[in-house]
């Protein structure tokens, strides 16, 4: 892919969506459930947990719930789905341990190499709905070399609220066009574009598992479309 020189040089900060873009939430949860509760369909469990994510955030954004960290929303969803999988009797300690699987998610195979290369040329940061403690623990566990961890918790707003995207530019005292959002979700990228950020789509065809591949076809509007973070580093000359 040919990238305009002005794009590669004008962008100063790369902000990354995390769940599904940098780390494999589905595969990580399936693996942990196979170890802890092999009788449970780990793929169905992972998808059911993730399906509760947007409705839970919507309760916060509507004002039904006050500001709530993703850790706490994840726990609410977990407690709700456990009976469906025959796990209603789990003790508090095991529920807490399972809930913190989100802190232990594994990176995609290209993530650490890609981020390490991109960090040489750009400031790289998270822009996730995950809370700061979660993202910090994940970075330590997965070896993710962030320059800075930014979160919805910092801005007290969940993506796609403009406060999150514009907040990154404000943190670094940059114009929105000097920030690029990197994500595997077109809705997220559309929100960033509406705020004036540049956007790069990364293909994660198996975000929901190999049995449920995503359509990763290019969509108009994004500045870049790459197969991986290593490919993004190649395109940006990092």
TrEMBL record:
Query: Which CDD domains does the entry link to?
Result: HAD_L2-DEX
EC number(s): the record gives: 3.8.1.2
Against Gene3D superfamilies, the record matches this protein to: HAD superfamily/HAD-like, Putative phosphatase, domain 2
InterPro entries assigned to the protein according to its UniProt record, in alphabetical order: 2-HAD, HAD-like_sf, HAD-SF_hydro_IA, HAD_sf, PGP-like_dom2, S-2-haloacid_dehalogenase
Statement: the UniProt record of this protein carries the keyword Hydrolase: yes
The protein's GO terms of the molecular function aspect are:
(S)-2-haloacid dehalogenase activity
**Keywords for this protein:** Hydrolase
Family per record = Belongs to the HAD-like hydrolase superfamily. S-2-haloalkanoic acid dehalogenase family.
Function field: Catalyzes the hydrolytic dehalogenation of small (S)-2-haloalkanoic acids to yield the corresponding (R)-2-hydroxyalkanoic acids.
Q: What PANTHER family has UniProt attached to this entry?
A: HALOACID DEHALOGENASE, TYPE II (AFU_ORTHOLOGUE AFUA_2G07750)-RELATED, HYDROLASE, HALOACID DELAHOGENASE-RELATED
Q: What is this protein called?
A: (S)-2-haloacid dehalogenase
Species this protein is from: Caenimonas koreensis DSM 17982
């Amino acid at each position: 892919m040919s990238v305009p020189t002005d794009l590669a040089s004008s962008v100063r900060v790369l902000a990354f969506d995390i769940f599904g873009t940098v780390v494999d939430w589905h595969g990580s949860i399936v693996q942990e459930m196979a170890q802890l509760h092999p009788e449970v369909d780990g793929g169905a469990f992972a998808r059911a947990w993730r399906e509760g994510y947007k409705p839970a955030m919507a309760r916060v954004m509507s004002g039904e719930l006050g500001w709530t960290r993703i850790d706490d929303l994840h726990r609410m969803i977990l407690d709700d789905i456990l009976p469906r999988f025959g796990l209603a009797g789990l003790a508090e300690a095991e529920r807490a341990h399972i809930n913190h699987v989100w802190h232990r998610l594994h990176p995609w195979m290209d993530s650490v190499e890609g981020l390490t290369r991109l960090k040489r040329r750009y400031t790289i940061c998270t822009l996730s709905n995950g809370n700061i403690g979660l993202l910090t623990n994940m970075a330590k566990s997965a070896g993710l070399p962030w320059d800075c961890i930014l979160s919805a918790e910092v801005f007290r707003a969940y993506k796609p609220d403009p406060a999150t995207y514009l907040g990154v530019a404000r943190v670094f005292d940059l114009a929105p066009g000097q920030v690029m959002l990197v994500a595997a979700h077109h809705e997220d990228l559309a929100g960033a574009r509406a705020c004036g950020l540049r956007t790069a789509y990364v293909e994660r065809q198996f975000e929901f598992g190999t049995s449920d591949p995503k359509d990763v076809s290019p969509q108009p509007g994004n500045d870049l479309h790459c197969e991986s973070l290593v490919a993004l580093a190649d395109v940006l000359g990092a």
